[in-house]
Specification:
The complex is a heterodimer of chains A (409) and B (255). With 409 residues, chain A is an alpha+beta fold. Helices cover 55% and strands 19% of the residues of chain A. In chain B, helix 4 packs across helix 5 (151-163) and helix 5 runs parallel beside helix 6 (181-198). Classes of the chains: A alpha+beta (409), B alpha/beta (255).
Chain lengths: 409, 255
């Protein structure tokens, strides 16, 4: 077996120029897959962390009622006595903090013009402790303990539409939990760019206390939980579930992945693109290798004839060709993994940026992640492709007529 | 004395222009030949006379159109492809005109190859390779690849490869055709010596007069037909291990 492997290994380097060309092709394919896959993974990971840190959190707690029916009145499916629930959660493992939220909507007016807003009421201190900081283009975040005026942060699109800047005032109107209309004057503390144009045109953020006063309710819509690491999501969720059982309201725990619809769509899209690239590389290597291996087979016709004449089983000839192709694939994969990681490191060090994609307003870093699973998968694709490509030439070689093969010039 | 090869009324025809039903050209016509163990037999004749065809048929790397061939008493026409492969592997050694060594193997590894495919243990392979290389005087060149060997040395490696597994029959197709006079003479002496010392049966095709001078029995072919089967010196003991004279051999072969 050792000698047979040695024969295959030496045959790989028999025609060095052709082997180098094959290795370049295979290595290039692996490099391409690693760079594209590494970049996609960076994008997806970035989007995941961005989604979580933009306020989604790792876990969210709602009342079960929230998912059973639509609210008849504002916050009537919200969490009452939320401080007790938050304290219960806070005692769980991997928990960094708990932030209460109220999601509401209403009208905003500058006196001469009105528009719809989508509001989010937060506890600035809790948000800040979890790293959920708004992406301000001007002004400051909400004060944890404001003095005087009610503060608000609004989206850049809404600010433009209302023709206001930091320090200006607006009036917000919303329906209270009793069904009445209530209003409050707010002062613009900051203007935010969420990265999404549609969101910027409607976004409004006030403190939890301000929203509860506006809505005349002490409930919250949900509790957002931040963990020490995204990787601990499942463990933390499993530990929290029993803690939520004995509470007065039936609670439902949602993981970030259950709520990140946009993230899932983007991830699936990138996976589809990567799969498509993988298929292209697979067929590229397959087609080019069949040709190369056939050439090698024709060049070695007399040698194969000699081996067969001496009594080499035909299956050995098939195995030899497949082994040679597999070895070539392994060497190409190693070269590709090395060059892919090297190029990836160079790209990462260069600090390149991509222009903002549609819907986003901020440029994206051009960064490539080094992912072992991707290296293994890419290597497997090319090795399998080469092994598959060798089957046809291998069978042809094994079926050579010995006398004809020996007379081959 | 045992009969190692028996060619019985063998014909081999080839289709012209890939037409398998008509326009057949006959490379060998009703050839009959018997070879006893330990013989040193030359098949002679001009180019196209059917020498290589006859050797290919005896070597079981081609099939006769009609007639049958027995190797060591076994009718090869009744054997399956895998049984023929086994027979070639165990009972026949080949020496080719163009050496046909595996270029990525060293001389020793080339000689080792027949033992490798027979599944001989590595220790025994090492011993037998060293012995075979010593037989052909190439112990010092064991680790050289074919491209670093002269033509004569390459053919000696090919001979060592053909005898290393002690086959019942060594077939050599024009073994001296690519060699100069000096190397050709050395090779002839080597093959003859191996025939004498080890009792190996050598069957080779040639039109090299130098080789024929050292050959006791010559089968002459012309246009696919055996024209003559003669002994050059019927009184020479051809095999010290098995006894008998060439006269007896020929008598046995033609009987």
């Amino acid at each position: 077996m050792g000698k047979f492997l040695l024969l295959a290994f030496r045959n790989v380097f028999r025609n060095r120029r052709r082997t180098i060309m094959t290795l370049l092709m295979v290595g290039g394919g692996v490099t391409g897959l690693l760079l594209s896959g590494g970049f996609f993974a960076f994008m997806v990971d970035g989007l995941r962390e961005h989604t979580i840190k933009e306020g989604l959190g790792h876990l969210q707690i709602f009342t079960a009622e929230h998912f059973r029916r639509d609210e008849v009145r504002v916050l009537d499916t919200g969490i009452e006595n939320w401080q007790q629930v938050a304290a219960t959660i806070q005692a769980g493992p991997h928990i960094r903090g708990v932030a209460p939220r109220i999601e509401f909507y209403g009208m905003v007016s500058n006196g001469s013009k009105s528009s719809v807003f989508v509001g989010s009421a937060v506890d600035p201190a809790a948000e800040s402790s979890l790293g959920f900081t708004p992406r301000l283009s001007s002004g400051t975040d909400l004060s944890p303990k404001p003095s005087g005026e009610v503060e608000a942060i609004i989206g850049s699109g809404l600010a433009k539409s209302m023709n206001v800047k930091v320090g200006d005032g607006l009036t917000i109107l919303a329906v209270t939990s009793d069904g009445a209309l209530n209003g409050v004057d707010v002062q613009i503390a900051g203007i935010v760019k969420t990265g999404y144009d549609e969101m910027d045109a409607r976004y409004l953020r006030v403190t939890l206390a301000s929203a509860q006063r506006l809505l005349q309710s002490d409930r919250v819509t949900n509790l957002v939980v931040g963990l020490d690491s995204t990787a601990n999501t499942d463990a933390a969720a499993a530990a929290l579930a029993p803690r939520l059982q004995g509470l007065p309201q039936q609670m439902v725990l949602k993981k970030w992945i259950d709520l990140a619809t946009y993230y899932l769509q983007v991830r699936n899209m990138f996976f589809g693109i990567f799969l498509f690239l993988g298929v292209i590389v697979f067929f590229m290597v397959l087609m080019a290798s069949v040709n190369t291996l056939l050439m090698a087979m024709f060049e070695r016709t007399r040698e194969i004839g000699t081996m067969l004449a001496m009594g080499t089983p035909r299956l050995w000839i098939v195995a030899l060709f497949i082994l040679e192709a597999t070895l070539t694939g392994c060497l190409g994969a190693i070269a590709g993994v090395l060059s892919g990681n090297l190029l990836g490191s160079i790209i990462n060090a260069s600090g390149l940026h991509m222009p903002p994609p549609p819907g986003l307003t901020v440029p994206i870093d051009f960064h490539v992640l080094h992912i072992p699973a991707l290296m293994i998968a890419s290597s497997f694709i090319v090795v399998f492709s080469l092994a598959l490509a060798s089957i046809f030439p291998a069978i042809r070689a094994s079926r050579l007529q010995i006398a004809e093969a020996l007379a081959h010039v | 004395m045992s009969e190692i090869v028996s060619v019985e009324a063998v014909t081999r025809s080839f289709p012209l222009n890939h037409d398998k039903t008509r326009n057949l050209v006959s490379a060998l016509n009703h050839a009959t030949l018997r070879v006893q163990a330990g013989e040193f037999l030359a098949i002679s004749g001009p180019s196209g006379s059917g020498k290589t065809t006859l050797l290919n048929l005896i070597g079981c790397i081609d099939k006769p159109t009609s007639g049958r061939i027995l190797i060591d008493g076994v009718d090869t026409s009744r054997l399956s492809p895998s049984a023929l492969t086994k027979l070639r592997r165990e009972k026949i050694g080949f020496v080719f005109q163009t050496f046909n060594l595996i270029p990525v193997f060293t001389a020793a590894e080339n000689v080792e190859y027949p033992l490798l495919i027979q599944g001989v243990s590595s220790r025994e392979r090492r011993e037998r390779v060293a012995e075979a290389l010593a037989e052909v005087g190439l112990s010092a060149r064991a680790n050289h690849r074919p491209d670093l060997l002269s033509g004569g040395e390459r053919q000696r490696v090919a001979v060592a490869r053909a005898i290393v597994h002690r086959p019942a029959l060594v077939l050599a197709d024009e073994p001296t055709a690519n060699l100069d006079t000096h190397n050709a003479t050395q090779l002839i002496d080597l093959m003859h010596g191996l025939n004498q010392r080890l009792g190996l049966t050598f069957l080779f095709s040639t039109h090299d007069a130098r080789l024929l001078e050292h050959t006791e029995r010559i089968v002459r072919l012309c246009d696919g037909t055996i024209q003559s089967d003669s002994l050059t010196n019927p009184h020479i003991e051809f095999n010290p291990n098995q006894g008998g004279t060439h006269g007896q051999v020929l008598a046995a072969s033609l009987s």
